[in-house]
Predict the 3D structure of the following.
Amino acid sequence: MTQDDVLELFKKSGALLEGHFRLTSGLHSDRYLQCALVLQHPQQAAVLGAALAARLRELDSTADFVIAPALGGILVAHEVARNIGVRGLFAERQDRVLTLRRGFRIEPGERGYVVEDVVTTGGSTRETMDVVEQAGGIVIAAGSLIDRSGGKVDLGTPRVALAVLDVPTFTPEECPLCKAGSQAVKPGSR
Ligand code: ZN
């Protein structure tokens, strides 16, 4: 699956919008990403999961499990794990800290991939890597459907993304789209 194929799938399901958006942060952007809209179609989730599993296996094929931070990464971990035939886990926040709950266990020495839907700053992937390491597990690679950092995030582990985007954001005062006279809209309000 090429980057264009991936982005085409996202656009088709409205998961990647192009226009002039006011994000929840108040910043403006010419693109808006909502992975849940592509993953709501199980067949698309399966196709993307298979593609990410293949890329991860090229880096290291010895995974015993796949883990993601909840909620955004859960479906991605599930589909990648299904493809490889290993466990798909997720870490969730308890008192703001990502933790393994629900009886999920990582045994010392077990090897795993940490996956996400989107990497922006890499913060939640990094936190999930900590969860694995605290349990005595080994992170062998990280993956995401989309890397919207333009490839800049360094997680200290081999990393793949099905598509790399560089999505600049602007304050309303600096926004070139506002300067050109168009109105920013809240995503999903159309
Ligand atoms: Zn604007």
